[in-house]
């Protein structure tokens, strides 16, 4: 495809060069007629460097868009709970039971490590320990 072929196919989208020249001349004349600028250099700079654009709307209708979140925190939690209940059979009571099991499991681990350290200390009878449970063991 040639470089100008696209522009030739869509001529209706391009502005008419005669109207564009008239528009720029009219805008420049109206904008610079008053006593806005005192020096010719400033006028020349404004004419060559800046453009004034008038925007006309087809309609003055306004559209208001109100947004609200589709999922709030409560709906997310309820949906997750419902899915967990259906697919996994988990409910709130089950979660509390799992938490209680984990607490008891950690207690057993900690106390078994403490007992092993006490047994090591009792195995060395020459060392005095000021721990209250050790005095009752020996």
Protein architecture, described:
The protein is 61% helix and 0% strand. The protein is mainly α and 138 residues long. Among the domains are: 40 residues, no CATH class; 47 residues, no CATH class. It is elongated and about 105 Å long. It starts with a helix and ends with a helix. The relative contact order is 0.04. The model has no long low-confidence stretch (mean pLDDT 71).
Mean pLDDT: 71
Share of β-strand residues: under 5%
Taking Cα atoms only, what radius of gyration do you get, to the nearest Å? 43 Å
SSE string, helices as H and strands as E:
HHHHHH
Q: What is the helix content?
A: 55-70%
Structural class: mainly alpha
The total count of strands amounts to: 0
List segments where confidence is low: pLDDT < 50 over at least 5 consecutive residues.
none
Major pleated sheet: none
Distance between the termini: 101 Å
Shape: elongated
Tally of helical segments? 6
Output the keywords:
single chain, 138 residues, mainly alpha, 6 helices
């Amino acid at each position: 495809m040639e470089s100008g072929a696209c522009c030739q196919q869509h001529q209706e989208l391009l502005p008419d060069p005669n109207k564009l020249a008239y528009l720029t001349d009219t805008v420049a004349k109206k904008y610079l007629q008053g006593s806005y600028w005192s020096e010719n250099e400033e006028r020349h700079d404004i004419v060559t460097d800046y453009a004034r654009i008038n925007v006309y709307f087809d309609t003055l209708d306004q559209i208001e868009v109100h947004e609200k979140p589709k999922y709030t925190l409560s709906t997310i939690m309820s949906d997750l709970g419902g899915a967990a209940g259906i697919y996994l059979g988990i409910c709130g009571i089950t979660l509390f039971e799992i938490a209680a099991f984990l607490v008891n499991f950690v207690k057993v681990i900690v106390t078994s490590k403490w007992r092993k350290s006490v047994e090591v200390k009792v195995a060395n009878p020459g060392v005095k320990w000021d721990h209250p449970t050790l005095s009752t063991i020996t």
